[in-house]
Please model this.
Amino acid sequence: MDEQANRDDAAIGVVAATAGLGLAAARLIARTPGLTPYLERAGAQGREQVESAAERLVVTFEPEAERMLQQFLDSPEFDHALERVLTSPKIREALTHQTSSYADELATRLRMRLREADRRCAGLASRTAAFAIDLALAQLVFLIVSALVGLVVALVGELRPAWLFGAIAGAGWVFFVGAYFACFWSLAGQTPGMRLVQLSVVGPGGAAPGFLRAVVRFLALLVAIIPMFAGLLPILFDSRRRGLHDFVAQTAVIA
Model:
């Protein structure tokens, strides 16, 4: 045991002595007059040679590497592997989860911002946001339907006089948007915009209003909007946050 320890000590001593000699030699070379510039030139030449060799390797092997990469990308094996990855149930599940999580996060943040605004303006912020979303959706669908109708009219012939076409289009817009709101209010108790901000409209019994009551509510909403939205001001003061259209149709919006 002692003999082994002595051997280890001797080996460590040799290593330490060698390191010391190397350090002393390096210091001696560094202090030798006129030798430093020579070493610097030698180092610079060595770097130039290494860089030149690297450039030659790149020039030599880059076309071959590109050819091999392109051959791999064009191979049926790569197409099959890529198709398997893209059609993998786990990949689809991960993408679906990521998309739904992001959408849920956006909706949650929107609701939080609207709740904060509601505390300052008595619930008007959420209702305004819901109405704007629904109006945009209804307008989008109306534009698509109008484009189809316009295509049919163009094939049949131009409708004259022009003011009649404008009047029909305006009446059609009011009818379509009214049907949108009335149907959602009566069938589900909330429109897509109201669902996004978690609001519902209820009738006197606490359930979703009937279709006729929903139609009356929409018509009263138009009347409330026409005088510079004055018919919506009672929302700021009424204890149940009702506007003119809610008073007329005997409805209320709840969270």
